Amino acid sequence: MTIDTAKLTKLAQSLVNQQQAGIIVEPQDRASGFWFGGGNMVELPDGSLCVVGRYRNAGDSRTGVAAGERGLELAIFQSNDKGQSWKKAVSWTKAELNVGDWEVLSIEGSALNVTESGIELFISTEKDHLGYPAGFEQYLKPGTGVWTIERVAADSLEGLKSASLETVVQSDDPEYLHIKDPFVHTTLDGDLILYFCTHPFNWSSSNTGYVIRKAGESTCSEPVYDFFPRGTTWDVAMTRGTTVVDVPKLGEFAQEPVSLFFYDGGECVRDLEEHNSAVKRPRGYSCEELGGLAYVMAEPVEQVTRLSRYQPMFVSPQGTGCSRYVDVLTTADGMYATWQQSQSDQSQPLVMNFVPTAEIEAILS
Predict the structure, then answer these.
(1) Among candidates 288, 358, 294, which has minimal Cα distance to 316?
(2) What is the bridge-based pairing of β-strands 103-115 and 87-93?
(3) 331-361 confidence digits (pLDDT tens)
(4) Closest of 15, 60, 23 to residue 340, by C-alpha
């Protein structure tokens, strides 16, 4: 099958439309280092929409996140009017997400998933008292920890608050030591693929891995860490997947399943000073990543094909250009896209854009 990549690109750019997007959740301050996001949106059986994310206030891992408020609250907002207004439904502080002796230093990305029995939430946090593996202990900076992913499940949103935390993905491999920012996708066979971001012990890159929970089972497979290598140009330092969304079965895309794979990328871990005569462009770096696009033909993922090989696909027209943590929800009415978008003050609120079904049909048919 020959893929019409122009149509895939047009669909993705219609979803992540920087000009049409509107703010739905503000950060706690309009300043650099403050944002809300890193989660996803789901539709509940009653038709309401829910979006999860974390409030992040300025903090620097080089001096220790324990010294500040970085990643201080996880929150779920609910809308009963198709995204026109949002109200906080449930939230957690860092202390409420401690796991045994593991004290949470920072709340990271999260992902909601509607199940037959209710709803589940995957939460990633940076935790103290885990320690680095033998031979690497000295690389753990004071005031910092190790990321893992936990799961809570309940029959309602409110029930998630009191549900027990269960660790589902954790690593002691120095190459993939830190596990965070989960996102989920259900295959045609009903298997759940839980994707996540990884960092090595020395924090020199962002990568993407996954585990599979087969339909009807409660445990996950062993992690696959190397299915989506980092890019070679604008995304050489960062390649962090954020969502997989099935392309509607319209036109030529009705023949074989195709999914869009959105990811965040960057050239470097820290912002680098450019040459005075160099082309001025957003470079993308840690906490200020730019948006990329790829597609996959089938899952479990065997191959991810980049559509943004030389330049990022999604860049905010404001601030640092940061445009990251894209999520897309497909409903009967159309598709909702959410992401963190840099503003002129360099804050990153959560923004949303809705594309109705008729427009999607016009693009793909």
Answers:
(1) 288
(2) unpaired
(3) 999 999 999 999 999 999 999 999 999 999 9
(4) 23
Residues 194, 210 contacting (CB under 8 angstroms): yes
- What are 6-31's pLDDT values in tens digits? 999 999 999 999 999 999 999 999 99
- Domain parsing of the chain, residue ranges: 1-26+229-365, 38-226
- Is pLDDT of 66 > 80? no
What 3-state class would DSSP assign to 155?
A: coil
At residue 302, the pLDDT reads 74
Q: Which two tokens stand for residue 16?
A: 């992540």
Quote the tokens at residue 289. 């990543």
The sign of the dihedral angle between the CA atoms of 153, 341, 272, 281 is positive
Residue at 17: amino acid letter: N
Instruction: Look up residue 188 and give its DSSP letter.
Output: T
> For 274, which DSSP code?
P
Place of tokens 């200020």: 288
User: Model confidence over 271-294: pLDDT tens digits?
Assistant: 988 888 988 889 999 999 999 999
How large is the average pLDDT for residues 234-256? 95
Residue 262 host element (H or E): strand 259-266
What's the number of CA atoms in the CB half-sphere (13 Å) around residue 102? Answer: 22
Give the pair of three-digit tokens for residue 93: 């502080």
Residue 118: which region, alpha, beta or left (left: phi > 0; alpha: psi -120 to 50)? left
DSSP state of 273: P
Task: Give the H/E segment covering residue 360.
Answer: helix 357-364
CA distances from 267 to 37, 227, 299, 316 (A): 22, 20, 28, 16
List beta partners, residue 356. 334
Nearest one of 300, 294, 184, 317 to 231, comparing CA atoms: 294
Contacts of 197 (CB under 8 A, 6+ apart): 109, 179, 180, 181, 206, 207, 208, 209, 240, 241
* Residue 303 predicted with pLDDT over 90: no
CATH class, 38-226 region = mainly beta
Please give the helix or strand (H or E) that residue 363 lies within, else none.
helix 357-364
| Residue in the structure block whose two tokens are 């103290």 | 128
C-alpha Rg value of the chain to the nearest Å? 19
Q: In this structure, which amino acid lies at residue 156?
A: S
